[in-house]
Structure formats: C-alpha cells, structure tokens
Give the backbone structure.
Amino acid sequence: MRILIFNWKDIKHGQAGGAEYATHKLAQELVKLKHQVTVFSSQPKQLSAFESIYGVSVYRGGNALTVYWQAYKYYKNNYKKFDIVIDQIHGMPFFTPLYVKIPILVYIHEIAGPIWFKEFNWFLGLIGYFFEKIYFLIYRQNYFLTDTKHTDGELEKHGISHNRIFILPLTIDAKPLIKTAKTINPSIIYFGRITPMKQLELLINATKILIKKIPDLKVIIAGKAKEEYLNKLKKLITNSDLNQQILLENNVSEKKKLNLLRQSWIQVHPSIKEGFGITVLEAATQATPTIAFDVPGLNLIIKNGVNGYIVKSDSVADLASYVLSLIKDKSKLTQLQQSSYRWSKTFPIYKTVAKKLVLILERVAKKR
C-alpha cells in the first residue's frame, strides 16, 4: 500500500512530541512491512525540503500556517502515487475531504477543546475553540483513528458516527532497564513538550510547598520547549527562589531522556489534557511512576497503585500532598516503581501495532 501522511510536524520538527514520535515509529514499521510511506510536513528553516528517515520519505514545505496549502499542492501534483491519505489533526485539519479523491483515514490523538486557551491568547483561543466545533462537519463521512475511548466519545459528540471510529492504543519500545540506582536524594521529573497546556507552573508552585518538608528535593523539567513559555518558567523559578531545586532541560537526547527517567523517583505530569499520555509509558519503562491530575488521556492510562496516582482535584496543594506522601513512604514508593516497570512490559511492540494499522487501512480502502 502507498500511504501519504499529512502532519504539520514531522519527527525532526523542533516542537515534535509524543504524537510525532508515535506516528514516525508506526511509519517505520509500515515500511518494514513492505508498504511505501510518505510524510508531508512543514519546513522549519533548519530542515531540508526532503529526506529519508529510516525508509520513510519526508517532504516539507511551508510554515505552521501555510503547510496546509503546501500539502494541497503536493497532493495535486502527486496523487497518482498514493492509495490512501492519513490526515493527522493537531488542532487544525488538512481539510482533505474537500480535494482528496482516494480513501482518507483521519488520525487524531485528542480534540483540543480547552487546550486552545492554554496555547494561545484569548482571542485566537476563542476562534480555535469554535472553529474546532465546526470543521468536523466536513469529515462526517470519513473514518477516524484514535488512541483512547475518551477521544472516541468526544468524536461522537462532534457528530462522528461510532461505526466510523477505530481505536488503536499507542505503545512504546520498552528499552531494557539498566540497573542504575535512583538518585540518593528525592527527585521528581516532568518529561514531555514544554508548552502552556502542560501547566508546568503548577509543578513549580507544588515544589515551593514540597521543599518545606523535603529541603533536598530536586526537580527536572525536560523536553522540547516553546521559547516564550520556557522563559516564563525561568522567570517563575527565579522569582520563587527555586533555582537550586529546579533544573530546566531543553532539547534532551533520547539517551539522556532515559537516564533522567531512570534516575528519578517520580514523574509529575500536570497537563490540562492528553491524547494518550505516552510519557507515562516511557517513565514506567524506567521504573518511574507518574502522578497527574484527573484529566482525559492521563486518567485512562494511569492506574492508581500500579503505575502512579491520579489527583482527583486540580489543586496544587493536593498535588504536593500526593507527592509528599509517596516520597515519605519508601516501601510504598519502591513497590510502585517495581509495578510500574512490570506494567510497561505488558504493551505490544510497534510491529504488532503496525500490523493492526494495516488491517484498518485496508478496511478503510475497501469501504470507500
């Protein structure tokens, strides 16, 4: 099968996160299964217009706004080369039903909803929020792929028939756990994209509470950052007199990411919403449980007492209380770290997930 994926960020984009990682891993496995996979994405200045990444052909053009027009032009010039299009939605869709004549599978991790107001100012957030409620109208006759039952339910509320939605949970390459001791002193990590929707100021404010009880606590916030938000966090850390307790790490390598996760006692994930919460899985592969708020995407993947805990309220004080009680109970923490690792090993390899994706693509192609 010849597959064309539209996604405004590819794996090498400066703001790529778990969604892009998962998409590229699936694309790699599809190539190994003898399928042809092409990705069309935006082109940041430091990236070339074309490159092959582990057998996946990546074409780039336009910026975060103009990539949609460039994708349309690319399709019009090359449509005979493909059998199916995957339209990956991150806030803004590619509007493929308006011009694509071959089968379409719409891939969506989450419906943004309140994320619009976290990532943009009130005016743009309002436009995005209401625009999202409208654009699904043109996709009602298409098939959707998502990661969780929660997004399935949200899609139905937006008018997409349940019969047109496939659920394919994400997975991860579970790297072998290297026997490295956790840090001697208590340590917390957040790993993921450093953007406003992750609400990392709440982790910083929780740290202010925690150091009164745990003065030797260290916190690491690591991942790919939006510069403006990163500067905001730096200012908050300085104003809170936490420069000795909190370290910000931008653009962390895969190897360093695993080392940081492996050494940390707990991951705290204060996001307002997630599509799947793949960093929970990544942390668990390194025996690091996650504490998060009761929000979509995280409340489905985190199992209380198995791989972490869900804080039912969105209170900073309650978040700090959960972390404190776990750090103070070494036996409970050790047990949770071990069960997190065991849980992570229950997930299938990417090749298995990719084979299921092929079956979905074939069904969509036949139902066209």
